[in-house]
Amino acid sequence: MRVAVVLSGCGYLDGSEVHEAVLLLLALDRAGVTVDCYAPDKPQRVVAEHLPAGHAASAAPSAPRNVLQESARIARGKVQSLAQLDVAQYDALAFPGGYGAALNLCDFALRDVARNVAQGEQVELDADCARVVRTAHATRTPLLALCIAPALVASALRGTAVRLTIGNDAATAAALEALGATHVPCQVHECCVDTQHRIVSAPAYMYDASIAQVARGIDSAVFELLRLVRS
């Protein structure tokens, strides 16, 4: 079994959430899955400092960063450009969260989606991200999205009544539903399974949770993803 994991940088404020990405890779590896990592080869939309405000080294970085190069930190160098991802070569696709999913894979995090969608605006998607999500959906290749990543799935499949969770945040849930998705509230250790559209989602760090709680939810989501693959 082969799964493509799509990263969006390194660091929860401007890239992939590192805990989520590593826990996802670990859960897939423990299940005997062969994993390849991909990321867009382009500049990050923003670059954020991850130290607390007031720390001596907390000044915002000034140099631009590349999403693919930053993702290589998580993938230990074994990452390919998202432009090279051929969905037909994989049994499933998986997207960890972190703001990079809503900044670098789409611009969901920069919009008042509930208001802007009502005014006819589109969420801007990375072209290759849109391609792989829509191809997976069209070919019934299962998808997994963690944390804020369901936002990019809803954006790519706008108007499709996919069932997704983004935790229990009312404003973010409203934004998902403005894109045509159906939001399903879930606790951190739970996941949402849309068997019709073959999509699994889990809230992960949409909650202020411990890494053990997040791991439990990701393990559950990976189990359900692989069950969809086998069905």
Summary keywords:
231 residues; alpha/beta; Rossmann fold; seven-stranded mixed beta sheet; two-stranded parallel ribbon; 8 helices; 14% strand; globular
Low-confidence stretches: none
**CATH C-level name:** Alpha Beta
Number of domains: 1
What is the radius of gyration computed over CA atoms, rounded to a whole number of angstroms?
16 Å
CATH H-level name... which superfamily?
Class I glutamine amidotransferase (GATase) domain
Total helix count? 8
Strand order of the largest sheet: 3-2-1-4-5-9-8
Number of E strands: 9
The CATH topology assignment is: Rossmann fold
Strand content is 5-15%
Helix percent reads 25-40%
Category by helix and strand content: alpha/beta
Biggest sheet overview: 7 strands, mixed
Could you tell me the mean pLDDT? Answer: 92
**What overall geometry do the principal axes of the alpha carbons give?**
globular
Order of helices and strands: EHEHEEHHHEHEHEEEH
Distance between the termini: 13 Å
What's the architecture, going by CATH?
3-Layer(aba) Sandwich
Describe this structure in words.
- There is one protein chain.
- By secondary structure, this protein is of the alpha/beta class.
- It has a single domain, classed as Class I glutamine amidotransferase (GATase) domain (Rossmann fold, 3-Layer(aba) Sandwich).
- Helix content is 35%, strand content 14%.
- The chain contains eight helices and nine strands.
- It has helices spanning 18-30, 67-74, 100-103, 113-118, 127-139, 150-156, 170-178, 211-230, and strands spanning 2-6, 34-39, 79-81, 92-95, 143-146, 163-164, 182-183, 192-194, 199-202.
- Strands 3-2-1-4-5-9-8 form a seven-stranded mixed β-sheet, sandwiched between helices.
- The longest helix has 20 residues, at 211-230.
- It is globular.
